[in-house]
UniProtKB/TrEMBL annotation:
Protein's recorded name: Glycerol-3-phosphate dehydrogenase
Native species: Algoriphagus ratkowskyi
Zinc-finger keyword on record: no
Gene Ontology BP term (one): glycerol metabolic process
A Pfam match: DAO
Family the UniProt entry places it in: Belongs to the FAD-dependent glycerol-3-phosphate dehydrogenase family.
SUPFAM superfamilies the record matches: FAD/NAD(P)-binding domain
Alphabetical UniProt keywords: FAD, Flavoprotein, Glycerol metabolism, Oxidoreductase
Cofactor: FAD
Molecular function terms from GO: glycerol-3-phosphate dehydrogenase (quinone) activity
UniProt superkingdom: Bacteria
UniProt domain FAD dependent oxidoreductase: residue ranges: 18-369
Residue span(s) of domain Alpha-glycerophosphate oxidase C-terminal: 416-500
Amino acid sequence: MNRQENLDQLQDKIKIWDIAVIGGGSSGLGVALDAISRGLSVVLFDKADFAKGTSSRSTKLLHGGVRYLAQGDVGLVFEALKERGKLLKNAPHLAHDQPFIIPIFTWKDRLMYSVGLKMYDWMAGRLSLGKSEFISKEETLKRIPGLKSKGLYGGVVYHDGQFDDARLALNLAQSADEAGTCVLNYVSVNSLVKDEAGKITGLHVSDKLSKKKYKINAKMVVNATGVFADKILQMDDPTAPRMIQPSQGIHLVLDLDFLGGKDALMIPKTRDGRVLFAVPWHGKLVVGTTDTLREKPKLEPEALQKEIDFVLETAAGYLARKPTREDVRSVFAGLRPLARPKEGSTKTKEISRSHKVILSESGLVTLTGGKWTTFRKMGEDTVEYFTKVTGEKLRDSKSLDMKIHGATSRVPEGHWGIYGFDAKPIQELTKENKSWEAKLHPDFPNIAAEVIWAVREEMAMTIEDVLARRIRMLFLDAQAAIDAAPTVAKLMAEEMKHDETWIASELADFNKTASKYLIKK
Ligand SMILES: Cc1cc2nc3c(=O)[nH]c(=O)nc-3n(C[C@H](O)[C@H](O)[C@H](O)COP(=O)(O)OP(=O)(O)OC[C@H]3O[C@@H](n4cnc5c(N)ncnc54)[C@H](O)[C@@H]3O)c2cc1C
């Protein structure tokens, strides 16, 4: 992806794009993917980096949702299981089968979870990732040595998918770019352009790096801005009532030996009635999540002390070694869009996990809710509105079987796996410069060549783009990321021809953000 080449396309004042997408998270990228599968021309803007919002802060699961099954939302579970299965085939370098174990303490729970998960298997049909089964107490402790043994009766094993959320977003942007989509990070949508009849005909956008402004024309505009959806709805109609109530979920990252195996732990009901996961990911353990109402949408939400305490206390209830604040390598928070309560009511309601598409009078199409797992179907359902908005015919969607950038049947070993077919060209960069073989941090396998690649091919513009979303070091170990930042800054500055002032200001920005991922001891 070449950012400058894509920016240059915005100079064309006559071009009319079929679809302009606001938002480069899973929702917006799903829309772009589906639109290109139907031969439409697409331009996509994110005011920050791809997946800077909620889409890099998920639990990283591709799941039908065992919880939604318990709630009787069968349609959603069917849909999500199909998408899960397809994504494992379309992006095998990023998504894989992850066994989960639910610890069982009573005979009644054994029966309930065994039956429920058999149904989950059956619903996945041919796309099932593996059979669920009850295992004995001994087997459970063998597979999760870090689990508390007191009162344990056994475990129920089931399978779901796991993935790298920010990298999937990036690979989707690359797939779209390769198919002719003009994808741009750090370009903010400032206002909507309308004709005399009040119909939207385009967007005013600005490049946040050069401060240059552009006007683009589009037949259909999609608002895929997650918790920021109200801001775009209010650009359309300043009197529009607020629709979204952000709700925060945090994750703590611990060393893998707190569980001690390859299996993930799933606690179906915590003190506040939520699900708690502890999932191995990139050599660490991701534990979460919470559900805390927040007043305002934020790109960089911060975990609250009470949320940190809650996750630590809940995990301690199940783990033989109690995790403490000292054990936390990183903490990250994300915001889900809940439906704001109506005037006079205090109750919030989660926007159904099955997404919603709203068509405004002006022709603005807003995609909201849903989850990462179903991003493609969400995109398909949104693009279906094209005929309604423009009166033009639409070809059938082909996104269900589209391979995603990087997809290969021979997934490379170790940390190179997530690069898929890009791994080799990255390794070959070291022939251009031997010093790019050097590691960025002694505790991580990533090397300097990955930074060069991120700048040349993956539209990385800042240190944070590299350390948070191209390489996930900030999410895995915030202190390690802070330590690696000067090396990354120097490599980027050389490659992008920036000076010492850029390095100093970038490092100051990165350290300020990264400090939010550190826990005060
Ligand atoms: C704690 C937590 C855990 C989760 N775990 C899972 C999970 O394990 N599996 C799963 O399937 N789902 C999960 N989800 C749900 C999933 O993460 C979200 O559904 C998904 O990431 C939402 O993506 P989005 O594109 O709608 O929003 P976002 O990712 O927030 O993207 C919106 C984008 O819009 C951009 N934007 C905003 N305003 C403008 C503007 N004016 N101009 C240009 N760009 C703009 C922002 O910069 C942002 O990047 C989880 C959610 C949370 C909160």
